[in-house]
Task: inverse folding
RNA sequence: GGAGGCGUCGCCUAGUCCGGUCUAUGGCGCCCGCCUGCUAAGCGGGUUGAGGGUCAAACCUCUCGCGGGUUCAAAUCCCGCCGCCUCCGCCA
């Protein structure tokens, strides 16, 4: 949720932000009028309620002959208070739900426009050159006994898979490498629940435009998370954090589930776009002022991880219209996927400023004793599947074997070359 | 899943049976001040959060796990839910 004061004090800034994302600004006018209605309703209710309270106080001391008249009066007033109260809460609900429709105000620096309007910030390394016909990860995964797609489909349906043998080892190695890196950088390691209550989903902004992508548990008020950003953002909900403890840096491992509705026919081959995968995610609580610098640090940690995997990748500044509800700015790291001849998203880091914390009621108590908003940021450290794809395709050899990047070798028991099982 | 107990302003706690003066008691911690060469002790004051209102204030409203109900009036009575604890059952 954006700062309600923005609507009242700088509505034009919000209108401009909507336009930058390619959204209509009529919601701004609705929010302004909902705010006015709400404040009028509050004033009316509070006026009646104050009257009711003061009359109520007179009743115990009232002389018996006055009592009946007083009771009559207060009884009538009670009905009006009740009506005013429900009018007030109705106005409050409308105001809140209108505000909730408004996504975070994109950073001035974020490019305007949609998915294709990103700006390339930098490109690292060069595309691998092969003196043979390179295989894609599906073929390599099969040759190496690492990925079993047929049985994944048999057991769970399309966009499911088993990681087998060296594939399973690769996941564990990547997870450990990511977790070690995070811990060394001062993150607290976490294993987070993959099922959450509506509050957590709503609070992180995933029940808005992304709702179609979210699995809901039948007959229960629980959702499967698409990222551990969700449980981590809700982790400190309803809390006031001591600002001197900031930044709070968490690195969580969890499974992630996505319906991938609306992407039928897209990336159907292999394990690039799947309904379930595991991920190590960085999540930070910090001050709004520090969040911009922290965002660059998260990006640096993502790059460090990709560097260790010796991948060719680029960093893009995602355009406003493609930011998602909560983000103020987002950088994606896209690795070169040889079989596709293009860069594809492997990791992503977002600065959500105080958008999520406002919804989830997480605040900070600062050195001067004041209480105010704090910011959240998230960043993928390792999304497992896609790094495996990039790894296999980038480091493949003519015979189908795959070189293991130096940094990953210790996590595979010193293995430097993955060979097809004999 | 069954039975019982509990949930009060950072922590502990009084109040709940018997509704109104609860504007929620006291202690700890914390903050400010006084005092004392320093420190400690002592003394005095402050200390939930949100919203409305205002130039700022004053002031007002809400907040005793959450939601509803009864009532002129609810921490207190009634109903539902959630969480925690104990025991039993089941289970990885």
Result:
């Amino acid at each position: 949720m954006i700062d309600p004061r923005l609507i009242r004090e700088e509505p034009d800034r919000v209108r401009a932000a909507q336009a930058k994302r390619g959204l209509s600004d009529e919601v701004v006018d609705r929010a302004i009028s909902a705010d006015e209605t709400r404040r009028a309703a509050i004033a009316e209710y509070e006026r009646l309620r104050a009257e009711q309270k003061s009359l109520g106080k007179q009743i115990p001391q009232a002389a018996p002959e006055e009592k009946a008249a007083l009771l009559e009066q207060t009884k009538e007033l009670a009905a009006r208070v009740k009506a005013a109260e429900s009018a007030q809460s109705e106005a409050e609900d409308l105001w809140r739900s209108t505000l909730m429709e408004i996504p975070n105000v994109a950073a001035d620096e974020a490019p305007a426009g949609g998915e294709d309007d990103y700006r390339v910030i930098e490109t690292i390394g060069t595309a691998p050159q092969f003196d043979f016909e390179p295989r894609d990860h599906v073929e390599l995964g099969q040759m190496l006994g690492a990925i079993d797609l047929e049985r994944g489909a048999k057991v769970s349906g399309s966009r499911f898979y088993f990681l087998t043998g060296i594939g399973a080892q690769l996941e564990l190695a990547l997870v450990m490498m990511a977790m070690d890196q995070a811990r060394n950088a001062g993150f607290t390691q976490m294993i987070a629940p993959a099922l959450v209550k509506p509050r957590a989903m709503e609070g992180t902004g995933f029940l808005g435009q992304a709702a179609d992508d979210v699995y809901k548990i039948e007959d229960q008020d629980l959702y499967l998370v698409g990222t551990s950003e969700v449980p981590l953002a809700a982790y400190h909900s309803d809390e006031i954090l001591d600002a001197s403890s900031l930044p709070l840096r968490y690195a969580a491992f969890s499974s992630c589930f996505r319906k991938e509705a609306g992407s039928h026919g897209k990336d159907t081959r292999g394990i690039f776009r799947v309904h379930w995968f595991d991920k190590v995610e960085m999540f930070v609580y910090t001050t709004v002022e520090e969040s911009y610098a922290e965002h660059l640090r998260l990006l640096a940690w993502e790059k460090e991880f990709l560097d260790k995997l010796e991948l060719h990748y680029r960093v893009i500044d995602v355009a406003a219209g493609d930011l998602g509800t909560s983000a103020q700015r987002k950088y994606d790291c896209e690795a070169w996927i040889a079989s596709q001849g293009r860069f594809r998203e492997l990791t992503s880091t977002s600065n959500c400023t105080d958008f999520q914390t406002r919804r989830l009621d997480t605040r900070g108590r600062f050195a001067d004793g004041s209480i105010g908003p704090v910011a959240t940021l998230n960043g993928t450290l390792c999304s497992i599947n896609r790094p495996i794809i990039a790894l296999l395709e980038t480091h493949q050899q003519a015979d189908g074997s795959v070189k293991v990047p130096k940094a990953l070798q210790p996590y595979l028991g010193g293995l430097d070359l993955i060979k097809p099982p004999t």
Summary: Chain A has two domains: 4-100, 115-418. Residues 3 and 108 of chain A are 17 Å apart (CA to CA). The two ends of chain A are 57 Å apart (CA to CA). The first helix of chain A runs from residue 4 to 9.
